[in-house]
Amino acid sequence: MVNSARILALAIVLLCGKAIAAIDHDFTISDTQVWQRQAVLITISLKNTDKYSTLDWPVSHTSRYRIYTSLNQNSTNRIHAILFFTKSGTQNIQLPDISYSRGGRIQQTISLLPVNITVKTLPAYIPPTMPVGKITMSETYSASPLLLNANTFYQQDIRLSGINVAAEHFPLIQSQLTSAAHQYLSTETKLSNAFTGQDFQGVKTYNIPLSFPSFTYISEQVIHWQYFDPNSGKILNDHFTSSAILATPIWMKLVLIFLLLALIYYLIRWSRRLYTSFIAVTRQRQQIKALLNDPVDTSKTKQAIATHAALHHWQSNASIHQWLEKYQQYNGIETELNTALQRLDALCYANSTINHQELHQINQTLLHYLHKVKYIRLIRHQLYNE
Predict the structure, then answer these.
(1) What's the count of helices (H) and strands (E) in the chain, helices before strands?
(2) Distance of alpha carbon 59 from alpha carbon 43, whole angstroms
(3) Residues whose CB is less than 8 angstroms from the CB of residue 49 and which lie 6 or more positions away in sequence, other chains included
(4) CA-to-CA distance for 57 and 78, rounded, in angstroms?
(5) Cα angle vertex 8, ends 7, 9, to 5°?
(6) Can 24-120 and 136-248 be said to share one CATH topology?
(7) Is the pTM of this model over 0.70?
(8) Angstrom distance (rounded) from CA 118 to CA 34
(9) Residue 214: how many other CB atoms lie within 10 Å
(10) I need a surface site. Which of 69, 83, 99, 144 has the fewest CB within 10 A?
(11) What is the pLDDT of residue 147?
């Protein structure tokens, strides 16, 4: 009796250990009416799993569809599967059971209900390499494409990618990449299909070694492809513009660097001269203004005229009449200025006391016309006569 009681108690313990709560789950599907090769996304959400459990879902491709899952050992809350149907018609899909394990032992299996999906036939003129869905293209180089050296190997990586598009159906673009101006070696093509979070992404990568035997310039290339839009049921066009490529010999780069340094040196030197001339012109104009605003006697007015003549590199000891001729030669005849200088000439030789009010009027007239001379002309005279 004692042995029988022990056996019964052990059986009860084992049965209790085996008993676990049923795993609730939600099953959603993106669409039940699709085109051939159009993605069908299935999401299975599990409600009462724990972080120590694992799932196993033994799915595989069939003659009717290709399937990819997001199942991994670190995520047991939600599972994604994506199907691409290769055959048209009404497809009855019975996906395999999901095994729920804990501690390395299968605790329970999750059975999925069958699904009926209507798959529409693609038009006969659509080739197998035309994707059903939009894709994008990008490129990278192992060095800047405009700073390549001749007789050196580089790598160009062209990447095509599409959300919910399988890489096997990406277009063939390699024929559009060939150019007689540069040398292609063996091109490596890589395909990958995987979930990144909740999104499925197909990726096709071209790894292209490049070599340029001499100076080479390749302008931007436009790569074209077509894709079938499942929403509109139409074929749409898309394109990508690749970067321009410039490869030069080392000696040519050194010459260009030397010329660039020489240009920088010239620009710095010319900028310093320009700044120096600007400062000199500004100071001389301020000096002229200060002299004309102080109508003490005619000597300061004549000194202002001489300073202006020096700005233009005219004759420094020229008379008022000679200075006026030079001014009119460059700026045209000004009647008011001519009259004011005649009055100034009269004041210079007058025996009577200087009329300061009249001299002030003459100085202001002279200052007005001297300020009409543009700064740039004065600076140019200063630069070219240094």
Answers:
(1) 8, 20
(2) 14
(3) 23, 55, 76, 77, 100
(4) 13
(5) 90
(6) no
(7) no
(8) 6
(9) 10
(10) 144
(11) 87
**Tokens representing 125?**
């003129």
Highest-scoring range by mean pLDDT, 23-32, 100-109, 263-272:
263-272
Report the C-alpha gap between 324 and 334 in whole angstroms: 10
Query: What phi, psi does 118 have (nearest 5°)?
Result: -95, 120
Output the pLDDT for position 131.
93
User: How far apart are alpha carbons 122 and 119 in whole angstroms?
Assistant: 9
Instruction: Tell me how crowded residue 174 is: count the other CB atoms within 10 A of its CB.
Output: 13
CA distances from 342 to 39, 111, 331, 335 (A): 96, 115, 18, 11
Q: How many residues does the chain have?
A: 386
Alpha carbon distance 199, 81 (integer Å): 10
- Residue 14 has a pLDDT of 39
Whether the Cβ atoms of residue 116 and residue 31 lie closer than 8 Å to each other? no
Residue 153 near residue 182, CB atoms below 8 Å: no
The separation between CA 233 and the C-alpha centre of its own chain, rounded to angstroms, equals 33
- The architecture of the domain spanning 24-120 is Sandwich (2.60)
Phi, psi of 358 (to 5 degrees): -65, -40
What is the C-alpha separation between 94 and 91, in angstroms, rounded?
A: 10
Tokens at 323, concatenated: 């200075």
DSSP 75: B
Beta strands in 72-143 (DSSP E): 78-85, 89-93, 98-102, 105-110, 115-120, 136-141
- Average pLDDT over all residues of the chain: 81
Q: Rank 88-92, 212-216, 374-378 by mean pLDDT and report only the highest.
A: 88-92
CA distance 59 to 185: 39
Query: Class for domain 136-248, per CATH?
Result: mainly beta
pLDDT (mean) for 296-323: 78
Question: Span 76-94, mean pLDDT?
Answer: 87
